[in-house]
């Protein structure tokens, strides 16, 4: 790391790499590693329990919907009860729920535990992004959120491949206990972070108005929704799709995707800070659109890997830009709710994608999933151009 650790508290210096920022980045890495290891293995576990494609989609999607429902409360709790309360409670719920996955003997039990996991995930990820925002200097927010996002990208680089590899040599019970242990590491690290204290004025403001979203974050969040619909199809059905087509090396897809994602994090945030989202969104969306078309075609492993790189470059450019855009226009005391709004639409996109694509794949085959995902990206591009036309300077 090029910057020395700073001793100051949140937002009191020009440095990004403070002690607390490093801790929150490490905690984020471990919780995402545990989560990413479950992404390609949960569908396999459901299949082992006798579940169909539709049931796989429901089990994956319900996790996102429970996270979605809890995020508005998490956003308000961040401003009234404090960052530490929300984050540590969320991590604790996540650790316990993931740790008991492998002990589920039926799809119904797994379904219930997935709902509980979603609650923990909704609390922890809403809090983590807000805490990172507290720690990053305002004029370097795009850059700082890009670095923060790298922790999740590193987890993505190794998590799915590691999960798939371990599922071949360990039982699902052992695998999910390891995932829970990674969450426990995140909990221990985060317990040493010096969190921003809730300001009295902010607390009074939030208790007067209890709502479900931050208005200033809606436009970038809607754009994110149409983009993350594609992720629901990839995370849930791509391993099964590749197996059906006798294409091997699916673990390399996730690794290449994550490496491309990390590459974009090194410059996309700075590009957003200097030139705004207009320099990032359309190019990134085009790359994702091409990746979806390639997956719908998918004749061999080479095309699979090209799609992974294109998707990583596109999503890695768009996601931190949209998150910074969501936060920067929100009042200071509404940053928690802005993050909650942003991640709610993320969850909604993945959840609807997983459930809808389960049915689409059952009716029309796995290839149709990715053509439908391409349409979703195209809708996002059209909506973005409409926003620019309404406000040529910057959509508000």
Q: How would you describe this structure to a colleague?
A:
This protein is an all-alpha fold and about 400 residues long. The chain has one domain: Growth Hormone, Chain: A (Up-down Bundle), CATH 1.20.1250.20. About 80% of the residues lie in helices and about 0% in strands. It is built from 15 helices and no strands. It has helices at about 20-40, 40-50, 55-80, 85-100, 105-135, 140-165, 170-190, 200-210, 220-245, 250-265, 270-275, 280-295, 300-330, 335-365, 365-390. Helix 3 (about 55-80) runs antiparallel to helix 4, helix 3 runs parallel beside helix 5 and helix 9 (about 220-245) packs antiparallel against helix 15. The relative contact order is 0.16. Mean pLDDT is about 85; it is low at about 1-10 and about 200-210.
Describe the sheet with the most strands: none
What is the helix/strand order? HHHHHHHHHHHHHHH
- The separation of the N and C termini measures 35 Å
- β-strand percent reads under 5%
Instruction: Please give the number of β-strands.
Output: 0
Gross geometry? globular
The secondary-structure class comes to mainly alpha
- Tally of alpha and pi helices: 15
As residue ranges, the low-confidence spans are 1-10, 201-208
Mean of all residue-level pLDDT scores:
85
The appropriate CATH architecture is: Up-down Bundle
CATH level-1 class: Mainly Alpha
Name the CATH superfamily assignment. Answer: MFS general substrate transporter like domains
CATH topology heading = Growth Hormone, Chain: A
Portion of residues within helices: over 70%
Q: How many whole angstroms does the radius of gyration measure? A: 20 Å
Number of domains: 1
């Amino acid at each position: 790391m090029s910057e020395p650790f700073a001793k100051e508290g949140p937002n009191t210096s020009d440095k990004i790499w403070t002690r607390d920022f490093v801790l929150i980045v490490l905690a984020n890495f471990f919780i995402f590693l545990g989560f990413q290891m479950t992404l390609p293995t949960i569908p396999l576990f459901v299949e082992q329990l006798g579940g169909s494609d539709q049931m796989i989609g429901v089990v994956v999607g319900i996790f996102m919907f429970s996270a979605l429902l809890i995020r508005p409360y998490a956003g308000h709790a961040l401003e009234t009860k404090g960052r530490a309360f929300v984050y540590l409670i969320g991590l604790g719920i996540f650790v316990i729920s993931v740790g008991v996955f492998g002990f589920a003997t039926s799809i119904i039990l797994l379904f219930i535990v997935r709902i509980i996991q979603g609650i923990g995930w909704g609390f922890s990820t809403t809090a983590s992004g807000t805490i990172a925002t507290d720690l990053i200097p305002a004029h370097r927010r795009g850059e700082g959120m890009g670095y923060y996002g790298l922790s999740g990208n590193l987890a993505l680089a190794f998590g799915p491949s590691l999960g798939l590899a371990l599922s071949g040599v360990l039982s699902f019970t052992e695998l999910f206990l390891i995932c829970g242990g990674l969450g426990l590491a995140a909990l221990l690290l985060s317990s040493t972070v010096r969190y921003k204290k809730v300001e009295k004025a902010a607390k009074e403001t939030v208790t007067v108005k209890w709502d479900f979203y931050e208005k200033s974050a809606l436009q970038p969040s809607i754009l994110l929704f149409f983009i993350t619909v594609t992720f629901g199809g990839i995370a849930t059905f791509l391993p099964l799709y590749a197996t059906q087509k006798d294409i091997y090396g699916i673990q390399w897809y996730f690794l290449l995707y994550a490496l491309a994602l990390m590459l974009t994090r090194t410059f996309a945030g700075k590009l957003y800070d200097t030139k705004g989202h207009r320099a990032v969104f359309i190019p990134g969306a085009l790359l994702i659109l091409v990746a979806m078309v390639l997956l719908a075609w998918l004749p061999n492993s080479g095309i699979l890997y090209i799609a992974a790189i294109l998707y990583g470059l596109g999503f890695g450019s768009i996601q931190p830009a949209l998150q910074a855009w969501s936060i920067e226009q929100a009042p200071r005391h509404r940053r928690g709710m802005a993050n909650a709004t942003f991640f709610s639409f993320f969850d909604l996109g993945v959840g609807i994608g997983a459930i809808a694509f389960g049915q689409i794949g059952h009716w029309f085959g796995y290839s149709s999933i990715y053509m439908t995902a391409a349409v979703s990206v195209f809708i996002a591009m059209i909506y973005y151009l409409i926003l620019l036309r309404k406000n040529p300077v910057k959509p508000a």
